[in-house]
Amino acid sequence: MIEQLPEGKSIGWMQAPPQWIFSHTVRFIGVVRIVIQDGEGFILIKKGNPIYYYFKHGRIELKGHSALDYFNSHPTIEFNLCKYTPEEFALAMKICNIEEASPKELIEPESQKSVITESTPKRPAPVEDPAPEPVPGQVQELFEVHVAEPVLSPMPVDTIIRRSLFPSNAIPVEEPPTVPEPVILEESDIKLIGQIKKLNGIVAISVFNDERNILLMGDVDIDPLLKIARSMLATTRKISPLVEWGSFVHMTLQIPEGNVIIAPFHDFFLCLLTTRTINIGHIRKILRDLQLTTNAQN
Amino acid sequence: MLKQILNKFLIIPGVQAAIVVEENGEIIESIKSGIVIDKKNLDTIISTVMLDSKSTAWRFGNAPLSMVFVEFSDNFIILGPIAEEFYLILIAKNTANIGQITYEMKKNQGDIVSEL
């Protein structure tokens, strides 16, 4: 089935929690191609609404919620956002054997904002908000609201969600549960980050804030990189109030293996992992220009 | 003598300070031009950048620190090890040529070490 889908226009490969896909595709129409180990799959998306989930590993095929549960069982997944034209999208719908639902049902499903799933294989029970009007094919199933079953876990639902997003950071049960604010990156920003990633010597690039990694492009383990980036950020925050040298542009830490660079990016920060041979002057210019553009936009 | 070597850095356009520090934060020698910075703040900046960066670098499988570069819109600071337990720190305007600065740092490293 994957081979039959239209190619689309690739925006770039990323690594992020599965939930990221749903919160960052409100204006996106296309397919999210997912690779997990030796298997591959996709999520067909129309303006933030998942239309179809599919995953195949060898002879095993997962469709609908089975595929979604499998995606959600991974803290982060690698995926490629590929934009579709209306014609390509229609063809993809046909290939997935889905009939087009009414625009309202597809674009503004009541329950879409509260689609939450547990990362464990436990089957969540549909409760809470009424499901949207039935839609032919698989669409109805995809718009069910899922919450964790209280019987299965004594933890607050919010805590479960956070833990599935940040598996490496153990969150104490007694901590007041708060759901992280959804983070939206403009498509142009994602494109720009993709362009930086393509520069010679850039191994990985991440967008992060104090709470989490928002976007990662590159084949690296995000957790150790994020710890280093946050540690560097803490250093800049300590020294910034002590100097009157203007706004922070970037910090570069050079070790024999390469460089780690952090720089402000809108309300977030960029973290670049580069080889030692990279042209620091070039990167420096890009980061300065980026900050000027960002300041002008703000 | 060390001051004379550090003075070579001040000749580079945009460079405003050259400082040699020991790992414990003690300033061995410093030379400044066209910059006013509170000594207490400078001490804090140096020790923060040096110690934080060293410990951050160690997270890369005990990697030694090669260079740290913190840039603001008006000025930047470069820190590089020159010998075991000694570091050279340069503060410069953002118009300064980083390539030239790092080249001079490497070029004068031996001379500085011989004076420590």
| CATH topology-level fold name of chain B | Beta-Lactamase
By CATH reckoning, the class of chain B would read Alpha Beta
Order of helices and strands of chain A: EHEEEEHEHHEHEHHEEHEEEH
Number of strands of chain B: 5
Percent strand of chain B: 25-35%
Distance between the termini of chain B: 10 Å
- Helix count of chain B equals 3
> What's the CATH architecture name of chain B?
2-Layer Sandwich
| Main β sheet profile of chain B | 5 strands, antiparallel
Q: Work out the count of structural domains of chain A.
A: 2
> What is the typical, i.e. mean, pLDDT of chain A?
72
The number of helical elements of chain A comes to 9
Mean pLDDT of chain B, nearest integer?
Answer: 90
N- to C-terminal separation of chain A? 44 Å
What percent of residues of chain B adopt helix (DSSP H or I)? 40-55%
CATH homologous superfamily of chain B, by name?
A: Dynein light chain 2a, cytoplasmic
Describe the structure.
Chain A is of the alpha+beta class and 298 residues long. Chain A has 2 domains: 9-165, no CATH class; 187-297, Beta-Lactamase, CATH 3.30.450.30. Chain A has helices at residues 18-23, 65-72, 86-95, 103-107, 139-142, 157-165, 187-197, 222-239, 280-297; strands at 9-16, 29-36, 39-46, 49-57, 60-63, 77-83, 125-126, 146-147, 202-208, 213-217, 248-255, 258-265, 268-275. In chain A, a hairpin with a 2-residue loop joins strand 3 and strand 4. The model of chain A is unreliable at 102-180 (pLDDT under 50). Chain B has 116 residues and is an alpha+beta fold. Chain B has one domain (2-115): Dynein light chain 2a, cytoplasmic (Beta-Lactamase, 2-Layer Sandwich), CATH 3.30.450. In chain B, helix 1 (2-10) runs antiparallel to helix 3 (98-115). Chain B starts with a helix and ends with a helix. The chains are: A alpha+beta (298), B alpha+beta (116). The interface between A and B is medium-sized, with 32 and 31 residues.
